[in-house]
Amino acid sequence: MNNYDTLGAVYDEWFIENDKLFVAECSAVAALLDEGVEYREIGVGTGIFAEKLGIREGVEPSEDMARFARKRGVRVIGGVAEKLPYPADSAEGLVMITVDPFLTDINAAFGEACRALKEGGSFVVAFIDRATPLGAGYEEHKDESDFYRGATFRTHDEIRAIAENAGFTYARSVQTVFALDNAAQEVKEGHGEGVFAVAKFVKKR
After folding, report:
1. pTM value?
2. Secondary structure (H, E, C), the chain
3. What domains, with CATH codes, occur in the chain?
């Protein structure tokens, strides 16, 4: 995943310094999680989102990131999104938070999520929406960032099309982060304004 093998501490520091943005992003993801469902996070990273969201297990290819997650009490399984270490029809719910820009093969990754989920299970995907005003800025300046250099940002419609092609049914979307100053931000229904978009998909029965 990009340069994340050496950026675990820096990654965490950004969210600690931008705590209000972090709260808004967590709130947006939480708004689409089904109550009582045990979610697993694909690309769990340092576990900073998992800890906040009550997610106890995740998949992560970067050992540097994984060691932070383990310190947070998250069970980390080594692996990649394109080949999940889970049997078919075994997961109640899956979450993926700003991982899509760094995937080697997003179609394979979404297909793997569908394979691993039980029928009726939900796949909650948070992503940087390129079609928003702030998203255009992310796209323009991504090569200046250690985190986003070489990233592929997508629009809501692109994410939805990939998910539906993988076998999911679209359920609902929310959005947040309408400005990058560290101030409280609302979570709104829909997409197209907030750069941090979250879409929920359900595996067809």
Report:
1. 0.94
2. CCCHHHCHHHHHHHHHHCHHHHHHHHHHHHCCCCCCCCEEEECCCCCHHHHHHCCCEEEECCHHHHHHHHHCCCEEEECECCECCCCCCCEEEEEEECCHHHCCCHHHHHHHHHHHEEEEEEEEEEEEECCCHHHHHHHHHHHHCCCCCCCCCECHHHHHHHHHHHCEEEEEEEEECCCCCCCCCCCEECCCCCCEEEEEEEECC
3. 4-203 (3.40.50.150)
